[in-house]
Amino acid sequence: MLKNDVMMDFREYPKEVSLDDGSKVWLRPAKSRDSDRLFAFFQSLSERDRRYFKHDLSKRITIDKWCEDMDYDRLLPIIAVRRKGRGETVIGNATLHTEQHGWSTHVGRIRVQVVPDARNKGLGQVLLKELCDRAEMRGIDKIQAHVRNDNKKGVRLIKKLGFRKEGVFKRHAIDLHGVHHDVLIYYNDLGDLWKRMDDLNLDLDSPSMWP
Predict the structure, then answer these.
(1) Could you give the domains of the chain?
(2) Do 208 and 49 touch, CB atoms closer than 8 A?
(3) Distances (CA, A) of 121 to 92, 161, 203, 205
(4) 2-11, 17-26, 132-141: least confidently modelled range
(5) pTM of the prediction?
(6) For residue 166, what are the CA distances in angstroms to 103, 143, 145?
(7) Exposure pattern of 4-13 as b/e (b: 16+ CB <10 Å)?
(8) Order of strands, sheet of 180-189, starting from the edge strand that comes earlier in the sequence
């Protein structure tokens, strides 16, 4: 099987996983038809949760555009869903951002968000490990995280996970209230991130962790 075929081999999904409280969720790549589910997911997050997001995900047009332009080569979204009958509810969203050309094809950027009632059950770590697994399949060996300088909790977490600050974009972000913020650029090697996740029992569930 060619490398690109391996990257897009989704036969293992939907994947059933058990959380710390014994409940079960299913992981799978998001699809364009998940627009309603994803909109409901982001609506379930508080304004405080959404304040660190790059885009205003409270707007339906933002979600619809994202689903319409879905491109797994550029951005791979893995969602966690609860099932009830034939229906599904999204309770977690994790994205792996990659470049297909140029000098940064070995670098991946990750984001993870979890709804409030599914936090502190290990779902954040499940999603992060899933992203790292897919990153490894894609030949990624370096993970990047962008964090606003006012996201103190997020900065503390990524430092615990071994990320190192390598740059600052001054006044690069404007929040929903029009206030400018610096954006901190952190990196970690994928192998070290795997080891840190195995060694540490961290709460990775807050949306502010991976905006």
Answers:
(1) 3-145+198-209 (3.40.630.30)
(2) yes
(3) 12, 19, 9, 8
(4) 2-11
(5) 0.83
(6) 17, 12, 10
(7) eeebeeeeee
(8) 15-18, 24-29, 75-84, 87-98, 107-114, 142-148, 180-189, 164-174
